[in-house]
Write a structure and sequence with these properties.
With 126 residues, this protein is mainly beta. It has a single domain (15-124), classed as Metal Binding Protein, Guanine Nucleotide Exchange Factor, Chain A. The chain is built from no helices and ten strands. The strands form two sheets. It has a seven-stranded antiparallel sheet with strand order 1-4-5-9-8-7-6, with no helix packed on it. Strands 3-2-10 form a three-stranded antiparallel sheet, with no helix packed on it. The N and C termini lie far apart (44 Å).
Length: 126
């Protein structure tokens, strides 16, 4: 059993997860890394909204799992990937909660991208 704290979203720290209206396209190193019409928008407290893209809609041939890990008491343990486009490597640009806490179970099998480590995260109209 883990001794890490598990916190529930609530009025003082709300988390909402909704389907993203439109198509999410992520580029890095001049290549399309993700292209999805099935992304989720996670809005956590006062932080900027984050797009969680199904891993199935990501070009996994560009990903390299790293040893970096982190923990969020609201979401769980995160693992990281670098994006290697051949000419460019964006280190720890992607994170994933492989076993998210129950309150955010919808983000399982989804990944998110650091905006400052990729070229763009675009939400295009449907």
């Amino acid at each position: 059993m883990s001794d890490k704290p598990v916190l529930q979203p609530g009025p003082s720290h709300p988390i909402t997860i909704t389907p993203t209206a439109g198509r999410v396209v992520v580029t890095a190193g001049g290549k399309v890394v993700a292209d999805s019409r099935n992304s989720l928008t996670l809005q956590e407290s006062t932080y900027p909204a984050v797009q969680y893209v199904p891993l199935a809609d990501v070009d996994q041939s560009l990903l390299e799992r790293t040893t970096t890990e982190s923990y969020c008491p609201f979401k769980g343990d995160a693992n990281y990937y670098s994006i290697n486009t051949g000419d460019n490597k964006a280190v720890d640009a992607i994170w994933e909660y492989t076993q998210p806490h129950d309150a955010v179970a919808q983000i399982k099998d989804h990944v998110a991208f650091y905006p400052d480590r990729v070229d763009a995260i675009e939400i295009q109209p449907s």
